[in-house]
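REQUEST FORM: STRUCTURE PREDICTION
Request ID: SP-0412
Submitted by: Lab K.M.
Chain count: 1
Length (residues): 278
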Amino acid sequence: MMKSDTKPIYTWDAKPSRRNLTAADIRACKGNKKLTQTTANTVEEASAAADSEIDMLICGASNVSLVRRGAPYNFLTAALTIPDYPTDDDILRGALKALQNGADSVMTARRLAVVEMLAREDIPVMGHLGLVPRKSTWRGGLRAVGRTASEALELMQDFRDLENAGAFSVEAEVIPADVLAVISPQTSLITVSLGSGPGGDVMYSFQNDICGENPLPRHARAFGDLAAIAAQMATERRAALSAFRVACMEESFPAQAENAKIPEKELDLFLAGLEDSN
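STATUS: Completed
RESULT:
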């Protein structure tokens, strides 16, 4: 992404910067333009996503500074993971720190009162509805949410409650595509579809799923095969280390070409000097 493709902003730390999208831009895209989002938690992951023109990124709150190094201009959401921010004070402090480090919004799967607390500070907040894996025990395990009429109606109310709490967007995870397609136009929330069909405002998939780095969940698709490359790298690493050890034992490494040289005259002077010193 070129700097000329972005617009000027001030960060939450009152520093001038630029972004490909602002919260206002994302809201204006609802119903008009589909956006994309993926995860990034390293400089390389962030840089790859930015170079690939992914619109929005999401990372762990502790990784914001790393991601900003790789993707200075992409709209970035910082996820406040539940165990790391247990109290309301922790959440607010963590949110403000993530924003200070360059995030544009924060994501929380906590109760509505937490969303309200953050929204009252004018922080763009992403909620989490549908399958929330950390809370899957209440759903009877990992499964789609909204597959019955009554559950879909309850889900619609959850979206309304989250909107009323002041959320800006919502990660809609593993909701039947037909259900999200009905819900999304009826809420002002930016719906970020993770395994919930094309009816969301933002299409989202984890970067390691996209790149084929691990076994896929049912709702994901691999567009690359980094797992095969990683396996090949592991094999090559062990082969190289073994060959290095053998070469050392056989004294074929280091070879003459790999050794530092001293001119013969200087070597003779050195040896003579040693004899004189003895």
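NOTES: The chain has ten helices and ten strands.
Reviewed by: T.R.
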